[in-house]
Design a protein that fits this description.
heterodimer; A: mainly alpha; 0% strand; B: mainly alpha; 8 helices
């Protein structure tokens, strides 16, 4: 029981921490949210490449995989797996293979939502 | 409104200063942390239900994406995002919302150039630069792997 509570605190702290960093960037540098998302994904790839992100995922689970840096982690992990499996061509296929589920789910949900819901009239 | 660059900057700054950072940060921390905790709960629940770990890894973010699409459709996500700032932006919910919201809002422009194209207005760059970074890492990884370093 105690272990579960500690795990949950770690998930919360790491996940929340990523959000705080982004909030500080937004408030103090006027960086746009779109740039934050791009920066986070690329940062996730780099942090995985240098070997920092994997230990963080082991430590904080979904606290590390749910933020957009986790999307970068999936890209990097996918490409590593594909390169080991298929050689250099894996560099072209691995990234999107590793993230195909998330991207396809977002597209599918976005499409269905567009069919079902009506947008707000533009102000 | 007709504004030159300077006046616009003043106008924009007046609004920018209104965001009190400590309060924003606490909100972002609490909401962002909660979304991650929800994901962790789902992850453990799926494992507990006997779903294979490889599938759980995909199913967990997919569940958050579905929930976000619903919240976006019903207009709840916008309210939460206003209060939470980066707390809803940074988790996968931000990506899902960036796909769903423009898809819904640009329905009037048609299924191709409206829904199909606008869906990627933010997600597009995210996917492009993320994938490019993964290609670079893949090439480096290939040579490291060949030399037996990784």
């Amino acid at each position: 029981m105690r272990e579960i509570i500690i795990d949950c605190l770690l998930v919360f702290a790491v996940g929340g921490g990523f959000c705080v960093i982004a909030q500080l960037l937004i408030d103090y540098t006027k960086i746009t949210p779109a740039r934050i998302l791009v920066t986070y994904v690329v940062a996730g790839v780099i942090l995985t490449a240098v070997g920092i992100y994997e230990p963080l995922v082991k430590l904080a689970g979904c606290g590390a995989t749910t933020p957009l840096t986790g999307f970068g982690y999936s890209l990097a992990r996918g490409v590593e797996y594909a390169v080991r499996d298929k050689g250099l061509i894996g560099a072209l296929t691995g990234g999107l293979s590793g993230t195909a589920g998330g991207i396809t789910a977002a597209m599918t949900c976005g499409f269905i939502a567009a069919l079902v819901f009506n947008g707000k009239p533009k102000a | 409104m007709n504004l030159d660059a300077k006046t616009y900057q003043k106008y924009a700054n007046a609004y920018a200063k209104k965001s009190p950072s400590p309060k924003n940060c606490i909100a972002a921390f609490l909401v962002g942390g909660s979304i991650c905790l929800l994901a962790e709960g789902l992850y453990r629940l799926y494992l507990h239900l006997g779903v294979a770990e490889a599938a759980v890894r995909i199913l967990t973010p997919v569940t958050i994406i579905v929930l976000t699409a619903l919240a976006t459709g019903f207009g709840v996500f916008d309210c939460l995002a206003k209060a939470a700032g980066a707390g809803t932006l940074v988790p996968i919910s931000g990506f899902a919302n960036a796909v769903t919201a423009p898809a819904i809002d640009n329905k009037a422009e048609g299924m191709i150039m409206g829904v199909g194209a606008k869906m990627f207005i933010i997600a597009g760059p995210v996917i492009v630069y993320g994938t490019l970074a993964s290609v670079v890492w893949g090439v480096i990884y290939y040579f490291l792997h060949m030399r037996g370093i990784v």
